[in-house]
Amino acid sequence: MKRSCYKLMILGLLINSLIALRNQELLAQDRESSAWTIARLKYSGGGDWYNDPSAIPNLARFMNANTNVRVQEEEAKISVMDDRLFSFPVLFLTGHGRVSFTDREAERLRLYLESGGFLYVDDDYGLDGSFRLAMKQVFPDRDLVELPFSHGIYSIHFRFTDGLPKIHEHDDKPPRGFGILDDNDRLIVYYTYETNLSDGWADPNVHGDPEEKRQQALKMGTNIMIWAILH
């Protein structure tokens, strides 16, 4: 009788251990499934849309370590006409060269943005002129306007009282942040100029940025992403 009770007790402990282990696996899977993905936008025109492949993974790791937001470390790479476009809350666009959209792409990007999507664009030097023309194609009736330092994107998680940090010199101009707003004053496009935040997200050996600059870039990048998914 005692031996039977002992066997039942051991069996119960084993079952409880297996249940606890399975619960841990399910919890890990749930955390993974709740993580969202940043999509890098491919575009035509000759610009290097693919540059600094370590940028998004590093930003995702920083956000996972410093916020309650879960971000997949691997970025998605999509075009405007990709069937998956509306599955991603945030698109990221960067590069040095020319960016252009076909009329169909411009129309679809506008639909994506007016339906709740968000586009973050970082000028990696040389993108400014063509990007502004492309945005007029997407939004002929809307302009890029400079955001005041009091805008919530500069303080939603980390505080930047003087606006954008300066990461790279470029033309030695002050960093500036521009936006396009929809009819409800929701920020749907955010554009950083003369700062090059995403270079600061890349691995330290890529651009040789000091750690202080990299931290500023990662913090401001975190603000942008959090603002995008909460608004």
Q: What is the succession of H and E elements? A: HEHEEHEHEEEHHH
- The shape, in one word, is globular
Strand order of the largest sheet: 2-1-3-4-7-6-5
- Determine the N-to-C terminus distance: 65 Å
Tally the helices: what do you get? 7
Task: Provide an overview of this structure.
The protein is of the alpha/beta class. The chain is 42% helix and 14% strand. The longest helix has 33 residues, at 2-34. It folds into 2 domains: 1-34; 36-230, Domain of unknown function DUF4159 (Rossmann fold), CATH 3.40.50. Helix 2 crosses helix 7 (211-230) and helix 3 packs across helix 4 (128-138). Mean pLDDT is 88; it is low at 10-33. Strand 3 (90-95), helix 3 (103-114) and strand 4 (118-123) form a beta-alpha-beta unit.
